[in-house]
Design brief:
It is built from 16 helices and 24 strands. It is an alpha+beta fold. The protein is globular and about 65 Å long. Bound molecules: flavin mononucleotide (FMN).
């Protein structure tokens, strides 16, 4: 066999293995995906990873009215309206606050648990965050790799990197660019959800990417996924391959890196060695030889063990992680648009509407819906428009947050409309890439109507499929959860599944879940801004969802469900401020 056909055969084998994982972890009406079946409370994983022996640098706890002030929620979606902030400790603090920090503590009787800016399946929070920082005047942090500790709102210094070497690594990016990385502790989700947990960890990565993109937008910063980097390189840079630092502790699976950069040179902050005018494109990869050299430096800390014992180890998760590991790097670049680099009319604080910070802080999952609140068709259409990536544009000219995503969409929405004033209840499809209409149509029952929804804004590819009351059906296929039927609308996220994996490779499996999580994150915030509330739904019966519209093959698969409506508060719970345990510096 030639080397090429050998690697093609290996890829086909990995695709088969990841599809096998997907099929085996489906929930069926008569059988859920394998899990322990009960909660082993004695070994509940610690939601907070720490690296013992590292220096913890506290990030300042900022009140909403301290600098940097948050722009309005509306402004973050209007390119060029948010004042670009310099990279310093306070802005980095805001970035982490809005991306991954604690947002509240909830208390019921003796138990207390923290919520965060990013949601997580079962509130188990498998996602860990890192930053690679260059030398920046006024930042007060040495160049290196830092792990974010959400409970302390601090950065643990994992590695010291020579300033010149980090500068070399980041030389092709605009000045003051830094890297943000995400990893997952699969065990945290597997403890409760067993074999399906790899899916949930990846949903959570998508949510975290979305939360970070929005956080960056509040500071006038840009961001893109560096998806040309091979996963071994991500692991090397984030130190997750350092077995000596993990020992008996639960490993972290390196997921992805993104690059974040200020959209314009910031007054008062000296630019680096390069002139940003020369930067016309953003590479989506890193020089692995430099990463290797950086990884050879001084490292600090040993990971804490999160559970004393692991009742069962779910091998299938390791197999899925291995099959979908991105082994190759790819040297692609994206043009740096003038639009993305120019905050021409900065409006740091406009008086209209809630601030982005307020919406981010108040984001919560609804635990129940009132089965009566309806939303207007205008509000519904607005939400649908928000998740349209405008794929016909170059990546960095797409609307936030879709400028972070270096791909055309693979996810479309199958919507159960229950209570939208002016819209007939029933089933609808939002095609996030209109070029894919006939493909999706062919996978479904040919008798579906596929007419443009009445009064739909021009250019929004929202199709009406079937009229009817789908409240019971939506709840039934969502593991009998009433939240899917008591809301204003709920939906399944349909991925172009098998073809994507076979064409692009098995590493696309996690990416489809990231795309779904990113989309969910935006709608969590949109729901808050509209005065309603959302909840992600990871538990649904896979094939019964497909059967509703006659999907019979793996060409299209629903990967994540979501619901939005009028919430019912659980008044038994007490809410405490996020950092009441940390005295203000
Ligand atoms: C990927 C994902 C799947 C979820 N699945 C469900 C679900 O099936 N049912 C549910 O009631 N909540 C679900 N949630 C909501 C979580 O329970 C919630 O995010 C978590 O408890 C944290 O609360 P918060 O979102 O208010 O911060 C899901 C959230 C995510 C991110």
């Amino acid at each position: 066999m030639s080397p090429k056909s050998f690697s093609q055969a290996a890829q086909a084998d990995s695709v088969d293995r990841i599809i096998d994982y997907h099929v085996k972890t489906k929930h069926h009406f008569n059988r859920y995906a394998r899990s322990l079946g009960y909660l082993d409370w004695a070994n509940q994983p610690d939601p907070f990873r720490r690296f013992e022996g590292t220096q913890l640098i506290s990030l300042p706890l900022l009140s909403p009215d301290e600098e940097p002030l948050s722009p309005t929620y509306q402004a973050i979606y209007e390119r060029g309206t948010v004042l670009c902030q310099p990279l310093q400790l306070t802005t980095l603090s805001r970035f982490f606050e809005f991306a991954l920090a604690l947002s509240a503590w909830k208390k019921a009787g003796e138990s207390e648990w923290a919520l965060r800016s990013n949601p997580s399946s079962g509130n188990l929070h498998p996602t860990e965050g890192y930053v690679v920082l260059p030398q920046v005047d006024g930042l007060e942090l040495n160049p290196g790799l830092y792990h974010y500790a959400p409970k302390e709102h601090g950065l643990e210094r994992r590695a010291e990197f020579p300033a010149e070497l980090v500068a070399q690594l980041l030389v092709s990016f605009p000045s003051h660019a830094f890297l943000f990385g995400l990893t997952s502790v699969h065990w945290r989700e597997a403890w409760k959800y067993g074999e399906r947990a790899f899916r949930y960890c990846n949903h959570d990565v998508g949510h975290a990417i979305g939360a970070a993109r929005v956080a960056a937008a509040t500071l006038g910063w840009n961001m893109t996924l560096l998806d040309g980097v091979a996963q071994n390189t991500v692991a090397m840079l984030l130190g997750t391959d350092r077995k000596q630092d993990f020992g008996e502790a639960e490993p972290e699976h390196s997921d992805c890196l993104v690059v974040v950069w200020p959209t314009q040179a910031v007054k008062g902050q000296k630019l680096g060695v390069k002139d940003d005018i020369d930067i016309k494109e953003i590479p989506l990869a890193l020089e692995s030889a430099i990463v290797k050299e950086l990884a050879g430096g001084a490292w600090y800390g040993k990971a804490n063990r999160l559970s004393d014992e692991h009742g069962v180890h779910w091998e299938i998760i390791d197999e899925a992680a291995e099959a979908s590991w991105k082994t190759e790097s790819c040297r692609s670049t994206v043009p740096l648009s003038l639009l993305s680099n120019n905050a021409s009319h900065p409006v740091p604080f406009t008086p209209h509407g809630p601030s982005a910070g307020q919406i981010i802080r108040q984001r919560r999952s609804a635990v129940a819906f009132d089965a009566k609140t309806s939303i207007s068709a205008a509000m519904f259409f607005h939400m649908m428009q928000r998740v349209m990536p405008q794929a016909e544009r170059p990546q960095l000219e797409r609307p936030m947050p879709w400028d972070v995503w270096p791909y055309d969409p693979t996810i479309h929405l199958l919507i159960f409309v229950h209570r939208v004033d002016g819209l007939t209840p029933g089933l609808y499809v939002l095609m996030r890439d209109r070029r894919r209409v006939s493909f999706i149509q062919q996978t479904m029952n040919p008798e579906l109507s596929w007419t443009i929804a009445p009064d739909c804004p021009d250019g929004l590819p929202l199709y009406w499929l079937l009229e009817g009351d789908a409240k019971k059906l939506a709840a039934q296929v969502s593991c009998h959860q009433d939240i899917a039927g008591d809301s204003a609308f709920s939906f399944g996220m349909l991925a172009e599944f098998e073809g994507t994996l076979r064409d692009r490779g098995p590493w696309w499996y996690p990416r489809m879940f990231w795309e779904a999580g990113l989309l969910g994150q935006i709608l969590y915030l949109e729901a808050e801004a509209a005065g309603v509330r959302a909840t992600g739904i990871g538990c649904f019966f896979d094939d019964p969802v497909h059967e509703i519209v006659g999907i019979q093959s793996l060409a299209v698969q629903s990967l994540y469900h979501f619901t939005i409506g009028g919430p019912v508060e659980d008044r038994r719970l007490q809410t405490l401020p996020p950092y009441h345990h940390r005295s203000r510096a």
